[in-house]
Amino acid sequence: MILYEYPFNERIRTYLRLEHLIGRLAQLLPRDGALDHHYALVTIFEVMDVTSRADIKSDVLKDLDRQKAHFAAFRGNPAISEASLDAVLERLDDAFTRLNAQLGKPGHELQDNEWLMSIRSRAVIPGGTCEFDLPAYHAWQQEPPGRRRADLNQWAGSLAPMAQAVSLLLQLLRDAGQPQKVMTRAGQFQQILPQGRSFQLLRLRIDPALQLIPEISGNRLMVSVRLVRHGADGKLHPAREEAPFELALCA
Description:
This protein is an alpha+beta fold. The protein contains 8 helices and 8 strands; from the N terminus they run βααααααααβββββββ. The longest helix is centred in the middle third of the chain and has 20 residues, at 82-101.
């Protein structure tokens, strides 16, 4: 099944972008190629761009605190495992403490590194990191893979508290959704959302054998899914048939 996720607000959209970049970085770092490490460094710069918003750290800390209060309210409930509850609260406390102890924005230490910032300024230019533009960077790329990886791990270290916190928040949010089987009618599906609940994320799983692509839109009142498929002309065309998929709304 192919998973598609749709955020209902800007905060969750930012969290998903961060998770995407951090996941890419985690795949690139273990590799040995100089090109892989180049894109790992570019990814670090992209994470810095996403976290440059002044309020993102505050948003994450507030969400962690909100989740701690939510789970603490289950204390003493006989239907809840105390060991599992303690484990979740411990992870929330640890993520909050690590992020709150970090001074400034994630990656702010790297902004004092003139060499890295020179690479960052050139990386946005097509072909801007060629050896004749950045000979010192070209020399670094010729270092042994272990040396480059150690540098990258050091530079990415200041991103770890934010990465841990965002990953935990998204995991808890996803776990709150209950999947249901639904069916489109003439390639479309709409669902009115219940009043009094604030949904933050939609998760949709669809069988790749159907060769259908969901175009998702939504607001606080309803969600809409329109199925399309690639045509022989290279364009996307509406699908008119009934098709099943799995839908989960996470609040």
